């Protein structure tokens, strides 16, 4: 069975690869498809998984449509993605509602028949007609992180760390205060996304100072994320891939 997981950016891409390897025992296979950059393929037994970053939330919907179109044109099981996972941030309720509506519009446009009302953070089952005019099974999971509040994946990760260590929580809070006040004229931290990433980087510049000037990916790979219960809970549905 083929599955595909698409996410927004580099933080998500690196963390999800690490998690699928370390927790769910997927093995590296090869580079992923050309329409996703960056991307990587994994294997576990007869199952195959592609993980790809799309370069921002606005690019998730167009890439989802490419995947659905590819499925509808597929003539063999090896070209068909039976399970599709989308991992995105919970920026605000209105954005999330619009996002889910756009997914439903894609499914309707490509005549995907869902067996239930489409919902986030749950597997949604349906069928899609392929190039051989066969109704193929399709399951879609949209993980909106964090589940219960607005914020980015970086914010969620810092909170998960803070819940397991009061000492680290204090470092995170002080770092957040610093970032919130250090650039009052917004000359450098010009968007909420930049502020979120700065808070994440400030914490890790303290936790791993020798690695601060190393690429963010290497810092992320060095953390045993599977030990954090909040993160295990968040990604537990990925065990069904």
From TrEMBL:
Pfam families for the chain: DUF3226
Top-level taxon: Bacteria
Protein name in UniProt: DUF4276 family protein
